[in-house]
Hints:
Layout: H1 7-18, E1 27-31, E2 38-43, H2 57-69
Antiparallel strand pairs: 1-2
Amino acid sequence: MATEATEAERALADRIVADLPGLAYVRVDLLPTEDGPVVLELELTEPSLFLALGEGAAERAAAAFRALLG
């Protein structure tokens, strides 16, 4: 089920992804806690990119792959 990240979740995920340059795909799974979100899982590969779940996802993925290829 697709959900929207909270501001705190997005901020944490953005900090993690910023430290992983050169990757075309990263998925950060978070668990909400009373103290704020914590990382549950960090995926650097995914057999299904879930491109149908987000508007423009396929285009963003293609652009990321093109950028990596130079």
